[in-house]
Amino acid sequence: MNTHTVKPALNKFLPESVYGRTFLLITVLESGVDIILEAIVIARLNLIHSLTLPLGATATRAPLAVYLAIFILAHLFQLYFALDALRHKNTIQLIGLCCFNFAFLVYAVIQVPEIREIEAAKGIATNSTDSTPAIILLIIPACIGLSQLAFGYLTWHLFKEFGWQIYKQIGADRKIKRVYLWYQIFMCLLKFDYFFFIAFSVQLVLLVPSVSPLERVLTVIALPITLLLLVLGYYAVRNERSPVIFSFMVGLLSGSSYFVYKLFRIWQGRMDPNSYQNVFKSLTVFSVSCLLMTLLSFTSAIICWRNFGKGLKAQIDKNSSSRKHLPRRRRDPAGQVYGGGMQGMGVSEHGGSGRRGSGTSMNTMTKKGMEGGLWAGGAGAAEAGDLQDECRRLPA
């Protein structure tokens, strides 16, 4: 595979505008800096050992180790969310990313006293050489805070940019635009659903000693099943399949019931040191978040289902087909003069706009343009003669 093949494939996943590329670059830098610094914190506090305890151990695992690991995982998800939002021009997902990044900022501030408490419990003085340097604990929230300001500024410009591009794709029909808005909201919720469920499951499996082996196994098995359910929801809304979306909504209701049950169990055992005492705050936050995301997904699924048959699927299929066949279109000299079927247009002998170049009408367009002496690109008579000879050799 040569560079000529790799570069177009890479550009397909990169945003085209300066604002989009800047947004992605800041996301990469923020994620890289925070992941490295969080890894340093985990290493200095020797928290890796707490993750190697047997699952059935009665000793309480260090919650901070798992929280920092989830924090790192969240940054990886953030990088994926940003790339996906920029590629699909999903403004709703960009706004969700800003909220997601703000949650990072809140946690980065909260973790500072938590780290100092662990160091104090180990007998490490704040000013000793064994303590985590204050500069590390300050860089993380500072980096996230600066990124948050940049994300807000860039999201505003991308909102206007994507609005124009969406207008070119689906037109000015307000009804179609509303349908497309809910389509974007639904797709955004699906991605955040999976992250919150993973974060909740990891804490439940690793931080709660009283969880039975059967429940641990079922929780782990639920991860791929949940992913399959979310893929099913995507397929149902993208292809407007009512029976499939009904199955998806039944799965969401089952998930909501599960999170209500777990929330009850968490608060029931919040005073038990062998149960949820050390993690009930975090698990409460994530269980409520999962329940809220599930209900929002259910609501948006109903709205998307009611929007079936209103023309969005046909419009998306049309745009997807156009993008799919555009790079493979023949790029010959006449096609460049007449815009290659996308950019320029042939001008007839009466001064009007002709049809865009195609294999079946190329000779007709060329003859009309040459007889009238009018060119879309303003070519001279000598160039016209050469191009006419070239076009005559093309199949009609």
UniProtKB/TrEMBL annotation:
Biased composition regions of type Gly residues, renumbered to the chain: 337-357
InterPro entries assigned to the protein according to its UniProt record, in alphabetical order: UPF0658_Golgi
Signal sequence, start to end: none
Coiled-coil zones: none
Claim: Transmembrane is one of the keywords in the record: yes
Keywords of this entry: Membrane, Transmembrane, Transmembrane helix
Annotated region described as Disordered, given as residue ranges: 319-362
GO cellular component assignments: Golgi apparatus
Record-annotated membrane-spanning stretches: 22-44, 64-82, 94-113, 133-159, 180-205, 217-237, 244-264, 284-305
Compositional bias of kind Basic residues: 321-331
Protein's recorded name: Uncharacterized protein
Species the sequence originates in: Puccinia triticina (isolate 1-1 / race 1 (BBBD))
